[in-house]
Amino acid sequence: MTSIAPGALPRVTYSNIGEDFSGVHAHLDTVIPDVRSRLLGLDRPNRIGGADSRDGEAFDAPCPIDRRISLGRFVAASPAAVDAAVSAARRAADDWRRLGWERRVALARKVADAMEAMKFEMAAACLLEVGKSRMEALGEVEEAIDLVRFYAGEMEANGGYEKPLLRANPKEETRDVLRPFGVFAVIAPFNFPVALSIGMSISALIAGNAVVFKPSPMAGLTGRMLMDCVTAAGLPDGVFNLVCGGAETGAALVGHAGIDGIAFTGSHAVGMAIMRGFGVGGRHARPVLAEMGGKNPTYVTASADLATAAAGMARSAFGLQGQKCSAGSVVFVHEAMRDEFLERLAATAASFRIGDPAGRDVFMGPVINRAARGRFEMAVAAARAAGSAITGGRVLSGDLYDHGDYVEPTIVAGLPDDHALHRDELFLPFLTVRTFSSLDDAIRRGNAVPYGLTAGIYTQDEAELDLFLDTAEAGVLYANRASGATTGAWPGIQTFCGWKGSGTGSKGGLGAWYLPQFMREQSRTIMR
To answer: Averaged over 485-505, what is the pLDDT?
Structure first.
């Protein structure tokens, strides 16, 4: 591929939606076909202790855009392979810790450089294995690179998290240090296979832990590409190990006695099972850093700019086919604005092109698989049974649609207030609409769910904004964003912390308090 000089093209983020990306598109017009022809359909083994491993059952991963295309042939690591990966990580952990934080930070920055060098190819791979639009896929890879550099900068800014303490005796030296746990398992989801995978992994690595990384079985292609970037950066063998596979591989990792901590992103049910079994079910408590989804409300008040609200709500609800933990899946609209807002929202959703996301103007690709399509059909059926008004709601067919799971962006209004579709995370392009006359009451209803990840508001009234900021029960709050009502966090700009059932801790990713969670505190007192 022809290389692009740094700065020659604008960076793609989740917020700079108004820039001229024609040069980016022109480059992707050459990169995406090249990746299709050169990088798909290959055998991609796991990587354990610096060597390729084929110990396990081989499986083929179909491309969700077109199931006739193979992303590649991967290996679901056997229990013995998982054990070998954990053993390799344990052997490497002590030397990696002793290497010192300065050297680990330098190597992490080399990982970011390796990712930068292949970011367009990695974005194309992400597009093909997830069904992301061009801008979503490239934005994710840019985010991933920023995550590595941000966490490296945090370690450096904090001096390796070592500081002197007060002294009770002039002859004593007292210090507070944070030290790694040992070996972390990183279990990543399909929807952000680059950013979430490397964000969790690099944090554990910079903190001094060795890592056994399991990507989603749908995301082995980018998983192996990340492994190759780590290898190219020169990290010692065994410090970062790749084991692909599904639930059985994950269970083998979670159940392994040699794992000291787990970083997980996925469903609430699985995250809580890990917390109960691994976190507190052993001889002593072990860290489980889990982000576990959301049911993210947005409030559109009578003072809102409806054009901005409709744009932000549609992008938040239907970007990546609603397959984001931060996706806006329920909107509360002031009763006086309901009809006009819904008209604008439906028009915006209808303007989104659905198809192969390799196309420049395609906003929505397919949902990830048949299971997701089945959930969509059940949700639509439940809404119809409740007598709701439905915009969209169809499974698409014909041509490419017959070879992937393509569905329409769907808006449902008129459900009973206590309906499960207002409460349960669906991970689909499916938005429910509720009305209100009192914002205080709407926020109370929006808070009355098990989750607390993100929330948004559209208002021009400072008192309404203050009420929202003071009472919304979520870790990430947004106001008046056209780029996304509840989505679009970026490293160092917005932190990403799940309250209630959306997370297992009180500190989130993308911010200053994430990295220390991969270490434990030690107080040292030495008499001189």
So the answer is: 94
